[in-house]
Write a structure and sequence with these properties.
Elements lengths: L1 E5 L6 E6 L7 H9 L9 E6 L2 H6 L20 H4 L2 H15 L2 E8 L7 E3 L5 H4 L6 E4 L1 H4 L4 H7 L3 E9 L5 H15 L15 E10 L4 E3 L7 E3 L4 E5 L2 E4 L4 E4 L10 E9 L3
Parallel strand pairs: 2-3, 2-4, 4-7, 5-6, 6-8
Antiparallel strand pairs: 1-3, 5-7, 8-14, 9-11, 10-13, 11-12, 13-14
The protein binds zinc ion.
């Protein structure tokens, strides 16, 4: 569940997390490859499985979404506080609060998805060496309750990487490269080669659509599919939901239960 690497030299305190969602195996597979050979030259690196009970069941959640639990008790209701994920979030919070940086590894349910990073502008420099072409910001403002948002709030750099669809065969390789480059970026492993800085496109998440009734997508959008203003995204009960402007859609899903997260809508921007 947890493996801590320490060194004699002072350096950054890093956390690498996988399995926050139990059906996302790429990060866990990367851990299995990396952990038996890794050695670090400075600082502390903690590898941790986010939601071991969900991982044991190969399910996304045990009771509820762990990645919506990282908020104060005052903002959680009694039902949420009765979940395993509530207990688990409280176990993880002290470790995350101490971290200088977090790399949290995920995959998505969207059938057509290429790897991307979620972070705020403070982490753009690190994101540039991770194996993705797209960087998504603004998620902290839409739901400031995930691991990466929590690390940002406690003074560290919170970075989440989505390594493609759950079943993509390259997911483990993306996760492995991301972990090694993350460690290299912070100088805790010895590497001869210079890190490659990638050309990346930047998107700002501006709208999280929360459904009122059963929400059905008008079609299966791919991750970051370009959508023109007025395009029919889906139907919420009887209400037609359309694109408010030319933008991009992320995490699109049909949702049966009310108050679900149906999609995130974003705008492209230039970071310079
Ligand atoms: Zn996930």
């Amino acid at each position: 569940m947890i493996q801590i690497f320490t060194s004699n030299k002072p350096g950054p305190n890093l956390v690498v997390m996988a399995g926050v969602h139990g059906d996302e195996s790429c990060g866990l597979e990367a851990f299995a490859d990396i952990l038996h050979t890794l050695s670090i030259t400075k600082g502390v690196v903690t590898f941790v499985i986010g939601n071991p009970k969900a991982v044991a069941r190969h399910k996304r959640v045990f009771n509820t979404n762990l990645n919506r639990m990282f908020r104060t008790d005052l903002l959680l209701n009694d039902n949420e506080k009765r979940t395993y994920e509530y207990v688990r979030s409280r176990e993880l919070m002290p470790m995350l609060a101490e971290a200088d940086a977090l790399l949290d590894i995920h995959s998505t349910a969207t059938p057509e998805s290429t790897p991307f990073v979620i972070c705020e502008s403070s982490a753009y420099e690190c994101a540039q060496v991770l194996p993705v072409q797209t960087v998504l910001s603004g998620i902290d403002a839409l739901h400031p309750t995930g691991t990466d948002a929590f690390v940002n709030q406690t003074g560290g750099l919170g970075i989440c990487i989505e390594c493609g669809n759950h079943n993509d065969v390259f997911g483990k390789d993306i996760a492995t490269e991301a972990i090694m480059n993350f460690l290299h970026f912070f100088g805790v492993i010895d590497r001869e080669a210079q890190l490659q800085k990638r050309v990346q496109s930047h998107l700002q998440a501006e709208w999280l659509y929360t459904n009122k009734n059963t929400f059905t997508l008008s079609k299966q959008f791919s991750e970051f599919e370009k959508v023109t203003k007025g395009t029919r995204i889906g139907v919420d009960g009887t209400e037609l939901i359309v694109a408010p402007y030319d933008g991009y859609i992320v995490f699109p899903q049909s949702v049966t239960a009310p108050n679900g997260e149906a999609f995130v809508y974003c705008r492209e921007f230039s970071k310079s």
